Every structure is written in C-alpha cells, then in structure tokens.
Amino acid sequence: MKTILKTTLLLLLFASCKTQNLLVSKTEIIDKTAFMYNADYQYKIRKNDKISLSVWGEDNLSVGSIYGIYNSNEVYGKWLMVDANGTIEVPKIGTTLALNKTVPELKAELKTALKKWLVNPIIDVKILNKEVTILGEVRNPNTITIDKDYVTLLEMISKTGGFDFYANLKSIKILRQEGENVIVTNINLTVADAILNTNIQLHPSDIVIVPSKKNKEFDKRIATIIPLTTTISAAAIIMGLF
What we know:
Layout: H1 2-16, E1 29-30, E2 50-55, H2 73-76, E3 80-81, E4 87-90, E5 94-97, H3 103-114, E6 123-127, E7 131-136, E8 142-145, E9 151-152, H4 153-159, E10 172-178, E11 181-187, H5 194-198, E12 201-202, E13 207-210, H6 219-223, H7 232-241
Parallel strand pairs: 1-11, 7-13
Antiparallel strand pairs: 2-3, 2-6, 4-5, 7-8, 9-12, 10-11, 10-13
C-alpha cells in the first residue's frame, strides 16, 4: 500500500511540474523584423487601457490629474477606462473614441473640444497600464511598468537584476500581441551581431521568456507571475517547446 501511495505521489509531483497546454496548439508566428528598432513607433490606445486626464487649473475636468498635489490614481481608481467599444467618458466633453489613437492624437482632439469652454487649455494624457513582463532565468522575474512607448530588451533585463547563471542566452523568446495574432521572435545574444540584438525594441504588453541552459523547469514559477493578458496562451505554447 505504501509503495502504491509513493508512486501516486511521485506521479502527481511530476505532473505538477509541467504546465499542461490543453487548449493551445504548438504553432507560432516568427517575425524578427517586427521587433527591430523603429524610431517612428507610437503606442496606440487599446481596449481596457487606463487613462489619466490632466487639465491645468481645472480639477473638475481632470481624472487622476498629474497636476494635483496628491497623485493616487492606482489607489483610488482615478482613471478613464477604455471600454469594449473603444471609448472613454470625458468630463464636459462626453463619450470620446480613444481606440487605436496615439496619445498625441487624443490630446489634440481633447484640446480642440475643450476650447469651447477654455481659451487655451493645457492638458496631458497618460496611459497608466503600459507594462513589459520578464519571465524565466532572470534574478527577479517581474511585470515592469514603463512610461515610454518603447524600451530596449537589455534595459528591461537590467531592471530584473540581470540574467541568472543558468540563463540560455541563445534562445530568448519575445511575444507580442498584434491584433488577433501573437508574433514571436527568438534572440541569440551569443552571436556576432549580438549588439544589434541587445537594442531590440520592446513595446508595452510584450512578454520576454528567458529559458534555462539545461531546460530547467520553471513553468511552475511562471504560473505565479504571468499576467492575465491575451499572450498567456502563446507563452504556454513557448514553454511547451522547451
């Protein structure tokens, strides 16, 4: 009886060490060019984005204003949420389409609308939920909030404390949501053109996976960190390939 119990426990242990990819297929879209540096890139507003609106000297027109004495947007929920229709409800102005607009485009539109009541409105728009997620063999796997439209790969790796000893620098995966598809690239930092690779451009919502040299299991670790984004299934696919 004890032997059967031990065997059962061992089977459960090994089963728990590997994430089961039950609802996904092992396919990926490889596109290196999509991750190369693009000086003209600007983040476009997405559904469920959290937006703060600051109008100088007009607290009644602001939501989570950066001009206020206390900036507690995340604590008190002071933001405009982009809804399923891609719109936000702006004080005084009303329902405004924000989906797929850049921040400068939305600012210009709101400024024009506010000129009906203000002579020269000074406004600022900020996306509060721009993040990049780093998983796997780094010292502090984490989801990192960024203020810029894009950052570089090594810039984000440095914010996790750097690579762990067993990090496989030949097979770093980057996942990006593009519409209904998830595109993937593989980065090898040990090759001759590694300098170009280190400057590879990361966009908000990208997920970086750094595997182990010896295929060390870290699916269990990932399960506690990975954010609830539409790239989760793709991350599960990638993990299933190691």
